[in-house]
Amino acid sequence: DGLGAAAVARRAPPGRRRRAGFLLFATSAVGVLAVFAGTVLVPPPLVPEPRPALPGERQVDVATGSRLTVVSRSARGAVTGPPIVVVPGGPGIPDLDANLEALEPLTALGRDLHLYAPTGTDRSTRLPDPRGYGRDRDVADLEALLRELGLDRVVLVGHSHGAHVAAAHLTAHQERVDRLVLVSPGPLDPADTSGSRATAGLDFAHRVQLYGQVLAPRPLLAYALLQVDPLAAKSLLGDVEADARNDAVLTAAEPALRCPGSPGAGPVRGSGFYAHQYPQSRTAAPPPDIRPALSGRTTPALVVKGRCDYLSWGSAVDYADALPSSRLLYLPDAGHNAHQERAGAVRGAVGAFLAGAVVGDPVPDAPPPGYAGPSR
After folding, report:
1. CA distances from 144 to 60, 65, 221, 293, 368 (A)
2. What is the CA radius of gyration of the chain?
3. Which of 116-130, 197-211, 322-336 is the least confident region?
4. What are the backbone angles phi and psi of residue 185, rounded to the nearest 5°?
5. Helix (H) or strand (E) holding 114
6. Which of 44, 50, 81, 147 is 20 to 30 A distant from 220 in Cα terms?
7. 3-state DSSP call for residue 100?
8. Does residue 1 surpass a pLDDT of 90?
9. Which residues pair with 330 in a beta bridge?
10. What SUPFAM superfamilies does UniProt report for this protein, alphabetically (predicted)?
11. Contact, 325 vs 345, CB < 8 A?
């Protein structure tokens, strides 16, 4: 063993000591390289858990070149207004199953409902170069999808990053947007770093579980490469393996997205590692600040914010400042995924909002007592 070799080297003549030292170094180096090859270079067998297809799920080709997974539900009864299009969060987290379960009852209001998986997620197109992912592509895909589906005017329900995408779409296509529902909206201020707090609410046991996923050698190396060379990262960690690992990481982090004691959600499926990570990487240029272009738009907006949301209170304030016709629905028993965690309350408020009722309150500059996230 190593101790025995060291003892022999101490008793042996200098030449033999050098040879013994070299052999010890070579043996150790081979061992390290074997571990490196086994854990980093050779992909471990992964068995991604596919998401069962939803009834009516289809693939839609759009003008940006993407093929998007789309799930639609028709209005129950007479149509009462523009259709609802759900813009999911992340980026890179389509959440089709959970969003459909939470929002499908809105069809009882006489509204068609459309959900989709953005480029880079679920069964939608993966880009060969991760540098193509980002807010601008998401906005272009959304507009292209509306055109392909023949939707002239819509209600956009945006969650987290999807709220930012919906707001950016409004700045370019105001004539298409009847109303906005912004659930736990992603920050408009490029200097707002509260998005990095997504795991702040995890307890010790869940944090250990998360780190076990994040610190695995291959995804850790791919993440490091992504900060300097996105193509090299993708060469090491292809989409299938990367997305499966991303699902596992997001599943481990899920408890931080809800209030303590709330029922847990099922496993995350269909996320896209590069669609999720590249826009947040060091090599990605931050998207332009849309607040000047958004300011003064009179489109009615309902901002939904839960007490346990990890994002800053300022993210809600910025939307209210830009959109003078906005109101706040504050839920003291909901977290980041408020539309899923308190689906009935959110659906009730959205129904009243779509019917033209005044819902919620003006957005206060300071967070209510007990708000879990930072003020700014």
Report:
1. 10, 10, 35, 21, 39
2. 24
3. 197-211
4. -65, 140
5. strand 113-117
6. 50
7. helix
8. no
9. 305
10. alpha/beta-Hydrolases (SSF53474)
11. no
Within 8 A by CB and 6+ apart from 211, the residues are none
- What Cα–Cα distance (Å) separates residue 328 from each residue in 77, 171, 300? 29, 21, 11
Query: What confidence tens digit (pLDDT) does each residue in 293-324 have?
Result: 999 999 999 999 999 999 999 999 999 999 99
Under a CB-based contact definition with an 8 Å cutoff, are residues 181 and 360 in contact? no
- The answer to whether 306 and 334 are in contact (CB under 8 A) is yes
Alpha-carbon gap, residue 142 to 153, rounded angstroms: 13
H-run or E-run covering 158: strand 154-159
* Structure-token pair, residue 127: 């880009």
With a CB cutoff of 8 Å and minimum separation 6, the contacts of 295 are: 321, 322
In order, the DSSP letters of 28-73 are HHHHHHHHHIIIIISPPP----PPPPPTT-EEEE-TTS-EEEEEEE
The rounded distance, in Å, linking the Cα atoms of 194 and 101 is 28
Structure tokens given for 247? 């699902």
From first CA to last CA, the distance across the chain in angstroms is 57
Q: What is d(CA 4, CA 259) in angstroms, rounded to the nearest whole number?
A: 56
Here the tokens at position 133 are: 């992912």
Query: What architecture is domain 56-376?
Result: 3-Layer(aba) Sandwich (3.40)
The answer to whether the beta carbons of residues 210 and 252 sit under 8 Å apart is yes
The pLDDT value recorded for residue 22 is 44
Q: Tell me, what amino acid is at 367?
A: P
Q: Is cis: bond before 50, omega within 30 of 0?
A: no
Residue 235's pLDDT band (cuts 50, 70, 90): very high
CA distances from 221 to 38, 56, 236 (A): 14, 39, 9
Q: Which two tokens mark 339? A: 């539309």
Mean pLDDT, the chain, integer: 88
168 pLDDT above the threshold of 80? yes
Listed by start position, the domains of the chain span: 2-41, 56-376
> How far is Cα 328 from Cα 321, in angstroms, rounded to an integer?
12
